[in-house]
Amino acid sequence: MMWALSDTWQVVLRDVRSRIRMPVFIFMNLFQPVLWLLLFTQIFKSLSGSVAGEGISYLDFFAPGVIVMTVLFGSAFAGMSTLMDMDSGVLSKMVATPVNRVSIITGRVLANVLVGLVQALIVFVVAAIMGVRVATGMPGVLLVLLLVALLGTGFAAFSNGLALLFKRTETVMATTNLLTMPLMFMSSMMMPSQALPDWLNTVRQFNPVDYAVVGVRNLVLYGYVWTDLWKSLLVLGAFAVVMVVFGTLMFGTRAE
Amino acid sequence: MSVIEAKALTKIYPGDIKAVDTIDFHVNAGEIFAFLGPNGAGKTTTIKMLNTLLMPTSGTATVAGFDVAKNSAEVRRRVGYAAQDVGIDEHATGRENLSLYGHFYRLDGRTIKARVKDLFELVDLAGYEDKMVSTYSGGMRKRLDLAMGLIHEPQVIFLDEPTTGLDPQTRAHLWEYINNLARSMGVAIFLTTHYMEEADRLADRIAIIDLGKIVSLGTSGELKKSIGGDVVTLTPPVERDEELREFIKRTEAVLAGQPFVAEMKPSDGALAVYVNDGSSAVPDMMQILSGQGIDVKTISISRPSLDDVFLKYTGRTIRTQEGTRTNFAQLRRQANRRRNQ
Question: What is the layout of strands, in order, in the sheet containing B188-193?
Fold first, then answer.
């Protein structure tokens, strides 16, 4: 157990270090969410008040969604670095050592979540500069980070599982692209649930992204809506656990 | 004392592909042992079974005294591995790469620091510890890769095609390091190669592996001796394949049954004739061939090389088998055709 923790820490260090050495990627990941934040709030400005609720601008409504999106994009492609390790022979060299195998996955996922949280904070700051205020203050911000960390853990682990399952960059890329966009649109990220058709409201109940969006938005816009918050925490926690198990199983059986 | 002991070791991949077919061998402590064979012969599969990355389908292997299937954790602690692809992290420094493996091998910080220093000196990379690996040359990477497999002072190190893709100078350089390792650290080295010269220069004993089976095993001298005498290579003055085949067919027919001929094998654009004494056989051979009107462009006499050994046991030259990636299915088909002929 001690070794599992120390191995995980070593893998986190390695991953975070290599990310910091290529800061350009961290900013590339941020580019899209920030662009959406700037553009969408202009395009849908006229919806302010009417769609998002009395006295709430579209910016206020959309900013929480962008924070979720940032973490989603950052973690959904986490498996790519595992694929790179596979292609370069790093992975097979690692698993030939006495390293705790689960740590290779958990370390990677953890590193991804850490970077994702930093990115989420940057988006937070951009949104704050644009005028978004967090209803629940600092404790709320911490809860927001917890919610997106769970979401990020789930998707990073899922992506690693996919990478090990397919072992091909093209397939993993295509699958991930196929999944992320619908997951975003089939949630209340861009439109409030009242404005969505019934079938979408049914679908989004099975979408982990939506639970993150609802949870984060409540904390930013309205304050502590405990029933929603607990639901989000539970669903996202379960999602994270299931995906970590999936990723670990894939690693156990498919890494050589 | 043997550090590797394989008994009837077998790996069958889905589709009934026998990558490794009931092989037996042992490797002594401090010995350099080479698996020589073309791509797809089963070399990498064997290494991966011995270092616990693959489960054998049947048979057993013990490495450093532990069964690879039942006690893989103990085996991993005692072996080092340098794969065909250099498994090092480009976006980290040499020291970071090496230290990470120190941690994975459960060494404490102080030991890691000391070993990193020693190993960088051993592989001649002192001064490059804190440079990014992306700035290393191919040879430097291979050397770092080698060092990474040594940080825990293993009893056995597996080197899968250690010099593939390196220029001749770097290759010769690397041979020196590998040799030094075995001699100075007493570590047993199990290496695979498809370079005759590499096996010849480095290995104490060589196993020739083809289509998953060990076809011959011994010291380089023993293997060459098993051919006996000299090799006379006859090259015809022809260019087209049909003409070459015709030449080989006619020459074989003419020379068959001659007392001085031990064996004949077609090789790259020529016919190899194994004889007891080259210098006395050549005049007789010339007389017989010219009497039959067979033209010969060049004749060369050579002491047998590992090339000839390989040709004798597998029926082909290793060069014709070289490719970038292993195509198992194709190799099996070729093998089956040959076996059925």
Answer: B79-82, B156-160, B188-193, B32-36, B205-210, B213-218
pLDDT in the model for residue B331: 55
Is residue A26 within 8 angstroms of chain B, CB to CB? no
Q: Is B5 exposed, middle or buried (0-12, 13-18, 19+ CB in 10 A)?
A: middle
Do residue A7 and residue B73 have CB atoms under 8 angstroms apart? no
The answer as to whether A190 is a domain residue is yes
Distance (Å, whole) CA A117 – CA A123 = 10
Does residue A208 form part of some domain? yes
ipTM above 0.95, yes or no: no
> Taking the alpha carbons of A155, A156, A159, A160 in that order, is the dihedral positive or negative?
negative
Residue B1 is given by DSSP the state: -
pLDDT digits (tens, 9 = 90+) for B262-319: 888 887 788 888 888 888 888 888 888 888 888 888 888 888 888 888 888 887 776 6
Is A117 a residue whose pLDDT tops 70? yes
List chain B domain ranges. 2-224, 228-340
Taking the C-alpha atoms of residue B243 and residue B230, their distance in angstroms, rounded to an integer, is 26
Helix A2-20 vs helix A23-43: crossing angle, to nearest 10: 70
Q: Among residues 49-88 of chain A, which lie with CB inside 8 Å of chain B?
A: 87-88
CB contact under 8 A, B104 and A17: no
- Asked, for residue A138, whether it belongs to a domain, the answer is yes
Superfamily of domain B228-340: THUMP domain-like (3.30.70.1510)
Of A1 and A105, which is predicted with more confidence? A105
Q: Is the pLDDT of residue A30 over 80?
A: yes
8 Å CB contact of B83 and A89: yes
Distances in Å between the Cα of B203 and the Cα atoms of B198, B219, B292, B318 are 8, 8, 44, 18
Q: Given this model, what pLDDT does residue B324 score?
A: 42
Contacts of B79 in chain A (CB under 8 A): 96
Q: Which of B51, B90, B104 is best to mutate for the A interface (most A CBs within 10 A)?
A: B104
Helix boundaries (H) for A77-135: 79-88, 90-95, 101-130
For the domain B2-224, what is the CATH code? 3.40.50.300
What percent of chain B has pLDDT above 70? 93
- The number of distinct structural domains making up chain A is 1
B98 vs chain A: nearest CA distance in angstroms?
12
Interface test with A, best of B44, B52, B91 (most A CBs within 10 A): B91
- Show residues of chain B in contact with A102, CB under 8 Å: none
Q: How many CB pairs under 8 A join A and B?
A: 66
Residue A134, domain member (yes or no): yes
CA-based nearest distance B143→chain A, Å: 15
Calpha distance B118→B110 (Å, rounded): 13
Q: A99 touching B, CB under 8 A?
A: yes
Select from A244, A235, A191 the least CA-distant residue to A215.
Answer: A235
A17 touches chain B (CB under 8 A): yes
- For A8, the token pair is 């995980």
Half-sphere exposure of B128 (CA within 13 A, CB side): 21
- The CA distance from A212 to B250, in Å, is 81
Pick from B87, B92, B96: CB nearest A93: B87
